[in-house]
Amino acid sequence: xxxxxxxxxxxxxxxxxxxxxxxxxxxxxxxxxxxxxxxxxxxxxxxxxxxxxxxxxxxxxxxxxxxxxxxxxxxxxxxxxxxxxx
Amino acid sequence: xxxxxxxxxxxxxxxxxxxxxxxxxxxxxxxxxxxxxxxxxxxxxxxxxxxxxxxxxxxxxxxxxxxxxxxxxxxxxxxxxxxxxx
Lengths: 86, 86
Prior knowledge:
The structure is a homodimer.
Chain A: E1 2-10, H1 17-28, E2 34-47, H2 52-67, E3 73-81
Antiparallel strand pairs in A: 1-2, 1-3
């Protein structure tokens, strides 16, 4: 069993209006030092397999097919064996 | 200058219908080994300050006030000095 932690981020060359809106809100709240806000997704899931290579391969497929949109998003993930301290 | 990477996750005791929907979709696509899908947010931003303690304090305030909803969400972040290799 592996716990997967996946970060999905919008590619650098793609506009991020949600990030821009949050940046404006931060400035309105007095956090003038914040800039370059980009918003993505963070996913955690459990994979019921004991083979790390298989888990990585399958998780890549999940990202390509469903979890991320590879046209406008990048993804990276880490696999932690379930039960291990993080 | 620091680059902040913030992970916002739904607290364990709070239902995550979006995660449930994605889990169902993964199963439909043949990824039967996936379970316990939880979906959160991932934010990247730049902080224009050179004092790590100040950056941490201000970023905590940003999370409490805007980036996360502390009633139903947890957050964790890391600060990387801008220009450092990740």
